[in-house]
Structure formats: C-alpha cells, structure tokens
Amino acid sequence: MLLNCYQNEFIEAGCDEAGRGCLAGPVFAAAVILPNDFSFEGLNDSKQLTHNQRTSLRPIIEKEALAWAVGSCDHEEIDEINILNASFLAMHRAIEKLQMLPQYLVIDGNRFRAYPKIPHSCIVKGDGKYLNIAAASILAKTHRDEYMTNLHVDFPHYNWQQNKGYPTKAHRTAVIEIGLSPFHRKTFNVSNPQLDIFSNTG
C-alpha cells in the first residue's frame, strides 16, 4: 500500500514527469499536494494503470488535491537543452504554478535540479511508493496524452492517438517513410524498424 507522503513535518509536493522517451511532442510534469488524510483505492504509478483507470482518477486528484499544477517543455526546448534538463525544467514550471507553496519536494527518480529555497528528496520508483508522486505521475501522463491526441488530428500518419509519440515500430516506420513532423525531437535518433527483429510493438 502506498504511503500518503515521504515526511509529515512540512507541506510536501510530489513531482513526476511523462514523455521523456518519446520521439515527438513535449515532456510534461506535474506537482501535487495532497491532504494529509488523503487515500484512494486504486491510486498507483500511472504505468501500472490502464488508460481508463488513469482517466477516471485524474478528476478525483484534481478535485481532492490541496494544489496541483502541470508544466511542460516543448520539443524545441528538449533539442536545445537535452531531455534530462527539459524534464527538470518542466517540473520547475509545474511547481511554480502551484497555488500553495510547498515546503518540501519529493521527486520520482534519482536526479533533480534543486528548486530554489525548497529542499527535496529523490525517490527511485517513488510513483509506486507515495500517493502524491503517483498522483503527479497520473496528471503528467493524462495531460500529455490529451495533448498528443489533439496533435494527432493534424498529423494522423504517425498514429499519435495510439502511441502518444513513443517509438513504436509503426511510429518509427512512419518517420522513415514520411520524414519528421514539426513536432518531432530532432536530436532523438530513429532506429530502422526493419532491424528491430524482436520487436512486437506496433
């Protein structure tokens, strides 16, 4: 069972990102401050949930959280400063938008660029350990999925509605056959799907 938060002395925000491994689109991040008594059965790391589960949990999190916010870095920023720094910047942007100032941050993963004047801890696989990070992972994922689904309307050849910009075999095939869209990350390499003998993605 996931714990509500990492520590109870200070107002804590959980932070996570979505879209680091994609070939196209922004990286999104979310920051969430939950009530101390918050609990909800089924809330977990977004990667452990189905699309429908994440979609149903999002409005609950957004309603029950004391504060939540989403930030992003677009594909051009990712190409300019690299995906790791873009992920940190997206988290900073989410934190900046919070309507309540957190006194402590818990970050999913093992690295983070310190946010000014707020101490933090990095938690490996934190989205499977603490509810506030799990909630942030769900908001980052669902907001990014929604963004990519909207982009799909104008760029249907890449099937972003389904793959959300991740490097599936079908997505990489489309890039090789059609070329890059204006929303692709130009610094990301697209491997030849024909050489991906053991891949069963599509």
From TrEMBL:
The keyword Metal-binding applies. It is found in: Cytoplasm. Gene3D superfamilies: Ribonuclease H-like superfamily/Ribonuclease H (3.30.420.10). CDD domains: RNase_HII_bacteria_HII_like (cd07182). It catalyses: Endonucleolytic cleavage to 5'-phosphomonoester. One of its GO terms (cellular component) is cytoplasm. This is Ribonuclease HII. A divalent metal cation binds at D16, E17, D108. The keyword Zinc-finger does not apply. It comes from Pedobacter changchengzhani. It comes from the Bacteria. GO terms for molecular function: manganese ion binding; RNA binding; RNA-DNA hybrid ribonuclease activity. Its main location: cytoplasm. Its cofactor is Mg(2+); Mn(2+). Keywords: Cytoplasm, Endonuclease, Hydrolase, Manganese, Metal-binding, Nuclease. Residues 10-200 form the RNase H type-2 domain. Endonuclease that specifically degrades the RNA of RNA-DNA hybrids. Belongs to the RNase HII family. Manganese or magnesium. Binds 1 divalent metal ion per monomer in the absence of substrate. May bind a second metal ion after substrate binding. Its EC number is 3.1.26.4. InterPro entries: RNase_HII, RNase_HII/HIII, RNase_HII/HIII_dom, RNaseH-like_sf, RNaseH_sf. GO terms for biological process: DNA replication, removal of RNA primer; mismatch repair.
